[in-house]
Amino acid sequence: MQGLRIDSEQRGDSLLLRLAGRASALDHEVLDDRASTIIESKPRSVVVDLSSLDFLGSFGLSVLIRLDKSIRRNGGAFSIAAPSEEAMDIIRKTRLDQTLTIHDSVEAALH
Description:
Shape: globular
Structural class: alpha/beta
Number of helices: 4
Number of strands: 5
Largest sheet: 5 strands, mixed
């Protein structure tokens, strides 16, 4: 079973966070810790690239919601970029596509 891989890089004013593999309960603590670190740094903008995500479970969704709310509360911008078909399916089923900002590509989200 493939776990979650998390990479990040600064791209101008935005922090680009790439999630790949499976965002499941098994990796919740790692993802939650990374989210806490990001929130504490009060970034101006966070873009989460989901293009290589094979599975997005409820714990992964909860972290994305927490990031969105916390970053916006701090005056920043939060968006999802290039969600995989699997990720977009669960985002639609939970109706989060109506509340989260979602872009078709990382480039679109960064501009």
